[in-house]
Amino acid sequence: MAIEVRIPTILRTYTDGAKAVEGSGDTLAELFTDLETRHPGILARIVDEANGEQLRRFVNVYLNDEDVRFLDGISTKLSDGDSVTILPAVAGGMA
């Protein structure tokens, strides 16, 4: 099963500069574990192991343009050909 994962600029140091990589897994958790085997260090930037292995608070993940927090989070099921986008949350405003 091939799943395209779009990588934000801030995490491309783990993917040797690649904007997108392929991975596999039946769920997001399995996909991220698969990515870790080829891109060591990336998992800790996406998943907070100290918080029950949930997505980090300031990381947004989209499955085919739908926010996985409104699906099943890290347990969201994947299908062959899906596209996963990882985006760091951006905050700002006036002080």
Automatic annotation (TrEMBL):
Please provide an example of a Pfam family that matches this protein in its UniProt record: ThiS
Q: What is this protein called?
A: Molybdopterin converting factor, small subunit
Q: What does the organism's lineage look like at the top?
A: Bacteria, Bacillati, Actinomycetota, Actinomycetes, Kitasatosporales
Q: Which InterPro entries match?
A: Beta-grasp_dom_sf (IPR012675), Mopterin_synth/thiamin_S_b (IPR016155), Sulfur_Carrier/Prot_Modifier (IPR052045), ThiS/MoaD-like (IPR003749)
Q: Which domain of life is it from?
A: Bacteria
